[in-house]
Amino acid sequence: MAQIDLRPVRITRDPVRRSVQLLAGLALYGTSVALVTRAGLGLEPWSVLAEGVLKHTGLTFGTVTGLISVVVLLLWIPLRQRPGIGTIANVVVISVMVDAVRAVVPDQRDLAWQIALLVGGIALNGVATATYVGARLGPGPRDGLMTGLAGRTGWSVRLVRTGIEVAVVVVGFFLGGTVGVGTVLYALAIGPLTQALLPFVVWREPAA
Q: Please, are residues 41 and 114 in contact by the beta-carbon 8 Å criterion?
């Protein structure tokens, strides 16, 4: 499969469609993270890390998520990744949406609901990731790391994303984050889901 061009493009190109796509993707991403955390079957990798950091700082979940994003942005420097409007929006919108959805969706105790939230959250996360990255308004901190490594190494998005998620889980676990079956399922599924969906939602330059 030919490598998809995910380099940021100026907002002046097709601004309405791409702005809507960006914000919709970020809102769905924050929602998906919240659903997985409420399923109680294991946090998604970045939430494992966030929870681990949370236990050592006492900050809110949303605040920790934002701070981790800032730290990840520093890793962009050696990869020569270029931030965009989407990069800043990612830090703000996702953090707010996670806390907002968690405020109205309670922890689940019924196994059927737990499974539904977990599977639905993971599937929604794949759609959300492809959607906002595909807007090409600048990937979020985590996905900029993914696309930067993919571009510099020539490895597939699927391989790079899976490797990042596994590494994050390991660090989060040792910090005290909760790991479960949902964590493993997410780490293994999100890379393939994102790669499969990107061709359908990525913004491309109109043909001359």
A: yes
CA dihedral 62, 119, 136, 45 (to 10 degrees): 50
Structure tokens at 20: 């809507």
Residue pLDDT tens, the chain, 208 long: 457 887 788 899 999 999 999 999 999 999 999 999 899 999 888 899 999 998 898 888 888 888 999 899 888 888 877 777 888 899 899 989 999 999 999 999 999 999 999 999 999 999 998 999 899 898 788 878 887 888 888 888 778 878 888 899 899 999 998 899 998 898 788 888 988 999 999 998 887 5
Tell me which amino acid residue 178 is: T
> Which tokens go with 201?
């939602």
CB atoms within 10 A of CB 20: 11
Give how far Cα 109 sits from Cα of 2, 11, 83, 113, 115, Å: 44, 44, 40, 8, 10
CB 101 within 8 A of CB 31: yes
Helices (H), the chain: 15-39, 45-57, 61-74, 76-79, 85-104, 111-134, 141-153, 157-174, 181-201
Token digits of residue 72: 């990840």
What's the predicted TM-score (pTM) here?
0.84
